[in-house]
Amino acid sequence: xxxxxxxxxxxxxxxxxxxxxxxxxxxxxxxxxxxxxxxxxxxxxxxxxxxxxxxxxxxxxxxxxxxxxxxxxxxxxxxxxxxxxxxxxxxxxxxxxxxxxxxx
Length: 104
Known about the structure:
This protein is mainly alpha-helical. It is built from six helices and no strands. Helix 2 (22-39) packs antiparallel against helix 3 (42-56).
């Protein structure tokens, strides 16, 4: 009997890879931020941050950021419009920090 190959979405595979290689998750997040600024697409940052947050564990990040899990999901959704204070807390929970450089 032949077994059907299981389907894994791109997002699921990306999350698995980021769990296995946290440094890759950081590189992905930095690249997404760069592209978002170049293309004036803030939604891209939220999408990348959501993917990295899922890789780190949404419950753990919510707890470390002192946010409710539901609020974190809503904040990082496509319709999310997080306050800087909340973004700051999530970045601290992920143990990352922004680095501001000239856009030249």
